[in-house]
UniProtKB/TrEMBL annotation:
A Pfam family matched in the record: ABC_tran
Protein name: ABC transporter ATP-binding protein
UniProt-listed PANTHER family: ABC TRANSPORTER ATP-BINDING PROTEIN, HEMIN IMPORT ATP-BINDING PROTEIN HMUV
Keywords noted in UniProt: ATP-binding, Nucleotide-binding
Residue ranges of domain ABC transporter in the record: 4-238
GO molecular function: ATP binding
Lineage start: Archaea, Methanobacteriati, Methanobacteriota, Stenosarchaea group, Methanomicrobia
Alphabetical list of PROSITE patterns matching this protein: ABC_TRANSPORTER_1, ABC_TRANSPORTER_2
Length: 262
């Protein structure tokens, strides 16, 4: 069942066309990866799906409802969003920041249940030891994990993430993706995630949406989408795509280093 459905979406900043005719869906239990080079429209697409930007054409459906007809509190109860930037310099602690993810459900006070959900999210993202630290004192990677934990405690059916692993070391990259992949499959969430690391995307995403110049270049399972032709046409690089593991992975080749016939 599609929890997010986007049909024929187009968006322009003034006279600069950024997205044209984008159509895709994200199903319950699925991690959908948005991939493509810098400037291809990934962040703009995520902001259109979240309702922060209004498309010039097309529709975004969230749980069968058109998002433009929903109140922001309703959207927040159905969809969590983790932005790309980690420049949060708030004086709040990690615990307090993650607790903010419960705001769509809070009335006058924080309950013991709310606090328990925060602690569970901190444990999932390996943040328990940082709970009382000020967010402003953290590294970029630590702040990024805090924002992901905040999204998780919203307990929404869908999660949008814009390059959440960009500031993380390889261990925490895999840890975050394991958590998101596991939650998608175990709890039936739809997770839409913009990624630059194609090998990480191929390993953890059920499907990939490849953008090039604001258009959909490819859409399907990683083994269908990740190819040497795609890498050449979309990213402008020569690479070898290996298929000897559970998921395909690409090995970029320096210019002039690829032997003919290999």
């Amino acid at each position: 069942m599609a929890l997010i459905s986007v049909n024929d979406l187009s968006f322009a900043y003034h006279d600069r066309q950024v997205l044209s005719g984008i159509t895709f869906s994200a199903d319950a239990g699925e991690v959908l990866g948005l991939v493509g080079p810098n400037g291809c429209g990934k962040t703009t697409l995520i902001r259109c799906v979240d309702g922060m930007l209004t498309p010039d054409r097309g529709r975004v459906m969230l749980g069968g409802r058109e998002i433009c007809t929903m109140h922001r509190r309703e959207v927040a109860q159905a969809m969590a969003y983790v932005p790309q930037s980690t420049g949060n310099r708030t004086a709040a602690t990690v615990f307090e920041t993650v607790l903010m993810g419960r705001r769509p459900y809070l009335n006058w006070k924080v309950s013991a249940t709310d606090e328990e959900k925060v602690i569970a999210a901190l444990d999932l993202l390996d943040l328990r030891d940082l709970a009382l630290r000020k967010v402003a004192e953290l590294s970029g990677g630590e702040r990024q994990r805090v924002m992901i934990a905040r999204a998780l405690v919203q307990e929404t059916g869908t999660i949008l993430l814009d390059e959440p692993t960009s500031n993380l070391d390889v261990c925490h990259q895999m840890g975050v993706m394991e958590v998101l992949h596991g939650l998608a499959e175990e709890k039936g969430l739809a997770v839409v995630i913009a990624l630059h690391d194609l090998n990480l995307a191929a390993t953890y995403c059920h499907r990939l949406l490849v953008l090039k110049g604001g258009l959909v270049y490819g859409y399907g399972a990683p083994e269908e989408v990740l190819s040497e032709e795609m890498l050449r046409n979309v990213y402008g690089i020569r690479a070898v795509v290996k298929r000897d593991l559970a998921a395909p992975y690409m090995v970029p080749v320096r210019p002039g280093r690829l032997r003919e016939g290999v």
